[in-house]
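hey
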């Protein structure tokens, strides 16, 4: 019987590969092959670009994003443009040590092009798309747009920083005049906060939609339960326009459920938002809105009092000014949520992320990305220096699966439902919930020299990320929509960062997270506009110290 199974699998393995025609590249101006180029490093001094291109659909289906420039996080497939997933070429493509050229457009890329967007390139993605910091990419560290030597946040680091640089130039930050082309909007990915955290650090907007609203097909994932992609921009209106273009069932993504709307039933978020704004005065835009600040998010271990104060005061002052009712709500399970996220995902994350394991549900796995596996000495050495978080999840998976049975993960999954219900109950009392997006403003980069030459240790690098996703990862597990909105500034921590950048200090953005009911992205967008109508937002740049 084993021999029969072997022969059957060998038969299928010998077949020509099949790639769904749903992922065929969108015909673009200029025809095939699509052209691309590497960034000019003398201009790309923040390391935000992976590759440049210029793609417009020859026959777009709508003008929702007509001529809007967009960059795509480089864990998302763009046919004809090299795919890196932020890692080294010999790890991304062990057969020949070269980055592969995809033959498919991910669903979100296809939809952006069909909405009239002008895709101008791919943005730096952190190594294997797995870290909330921005020092791990094979492309080099991405600096914070407001303060050199500090993190831009990850793993959607290039996307957030590019938008932040545009905003920083508008607000008078000097030295940003010769950065070349930037972008109007960007795509990010999020498993524990990788859209919202860099949005917070860089002072821009980033939305993690409800799980299953925006297709993840054609994107490297970490774990299907927590995989999300979504829009990033410098204003709420562009977030809404992108969401209209992106949302809806695609027929391929197992993350989508019977609750996911068909394309023809997707809300016209940008039209509804415009109508909401036009029919209200600024002082009444929040009338009837019930806003609940999660008390535990302000006082959890590791939360900066300065950040908590900025978020609490901004939410109270500006939502109230727009006519909303603001109060605090206690959700004790919010403090347990990061542990539930970890217990329900970490026993499989390494093999799904780096180990080429196929997800258990039918998935259109990337045909061009077969990363190096199993772990060997070169891979260990490269990643221990560049992104020790990957080595941590690899060894952690081995340890956890040896110590705990599958019953432990099953129990953790049941607690995910409990966590979801805890937020659902709070959202019966409130329309949106508020937390700081991050417990702190962006920390300095580690010293990236080898440890033998005085660089940061592995533990020093790992400590930077500890606790940074405590307010964001809960909603990856629960599936609720959550958006980071800039709400003010706090002083950066002066600390030893990269060599030559010791002791820099300054002001860095603070992000406020708005969480809504599942499938109520419209409620999140309306709340963000109410906050702005009351006077909320990033505000003036305080300037250098």
């Amino acid at each position: 019987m084993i021999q029969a199974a072997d022969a059957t699998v060998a038969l299928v393995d010998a077949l020509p590969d099949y790639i769904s025609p749903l992922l065929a590249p969108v015909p673009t101006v200029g025809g095939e092959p699509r052209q691309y180029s590497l960034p000019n490093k003398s201009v790309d001094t923040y390391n935000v670009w992976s590759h440049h291109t210029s793609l417009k659909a020859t026959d777009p289906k709508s003008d929702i994003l007509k001529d809007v420039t967009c960059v795509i996080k480089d864990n998302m497939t763009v046919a004809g443009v090299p795919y890196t997933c932020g890692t080294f070429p010999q790890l991304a493509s062990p057969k020949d040590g070269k980055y592969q050229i995809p033959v498919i457009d991910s669903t979100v890329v296809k939809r952006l092009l069909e909405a009239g967007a002008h895709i101008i390139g791919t943005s730096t993605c952190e190594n294997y798309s797995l870290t909330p910091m921005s020092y791990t990419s094979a492309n080099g560290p991405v600096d914070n747009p407001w303060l050199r030597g500090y993190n831009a946040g990850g793993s959607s680091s290039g996307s957030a920083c590019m938008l932040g640089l545009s905003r920083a130039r508008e607000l008078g930050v000097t030295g940003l005049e010769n950065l070349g082309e930037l972008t109007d909007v960007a795509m990010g990915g999020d498993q524990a906060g990788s859209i919202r955290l860099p949005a917070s650090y860089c002072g821009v907007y980033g939305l993690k939609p409800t799980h299953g609203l925006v297709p993840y097909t054609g994107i490297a994932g970490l774990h299907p339960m927590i995989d999300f992609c979504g829009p990033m921009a410098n204003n709420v209106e562009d977030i809404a326009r992108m969401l209209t273009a992106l949302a809806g069932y695609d027929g391929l993504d197992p993350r989508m459920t019977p609750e996911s709307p068909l394309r023809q039933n997707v809300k016209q978020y940008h039209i509804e938002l415009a109508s909401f704004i036009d029919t209200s005065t600024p002082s009444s835009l929040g009338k009837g809105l019930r806003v609940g600040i999660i008390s535990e998010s302000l006082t959890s271990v590791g939360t900066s009092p300065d950040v908590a104060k900025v978020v609490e005061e901004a939410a109270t002052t500006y939502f109230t000014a727009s006519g909303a009712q603001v109060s605090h709500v206690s959700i004790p399970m919010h403090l347990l949520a990061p542990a539930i996220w970890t217990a329900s995902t970490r026993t499989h994350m390494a093999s799904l992320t780096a180990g080429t394991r196929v997800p258990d549900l039918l998935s259109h796995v990337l045909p061009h990305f077969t990363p190096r596996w199993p772990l060997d000495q070169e891979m260990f050495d490269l990643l221990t220096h560049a992104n020790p978080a990957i080595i941590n999840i690899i060894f952690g998976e081995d340890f956890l699966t040896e110590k705990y049975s599958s019953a432990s993960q099953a129990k953790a999954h049941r607690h995910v439902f409990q966590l979801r219900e805890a937020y659902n109950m709070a959202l019966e009392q409130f329309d949106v919930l508020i937390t700081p997006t991050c417990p702190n403003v962006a920390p300095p980069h580690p010293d990236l020299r080898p440890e033998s030459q005085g660089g940061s240790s592995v533990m020093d690098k790992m400590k930077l990320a500890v606790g940074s996703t405590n307010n964001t990862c809960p909603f990856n597990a629960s599936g609720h929509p959550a958006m980071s909105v800039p709400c003010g500034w706090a002083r950066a921590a002066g600390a030893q960062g990269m060599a030559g950048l010791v002791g820099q200090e300054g002001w860095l953005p603070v992000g406020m997270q708005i969480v809504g009911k599942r499938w109520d992205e419209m409620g999140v967008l309306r709340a963000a506009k109410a906050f702005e109508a009351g006077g909320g937002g990033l505000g003036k740049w305080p300037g250098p110290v």
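DSSP finds 17 helices and 14 strands in the chain. The longest strand covers residues 482-491.
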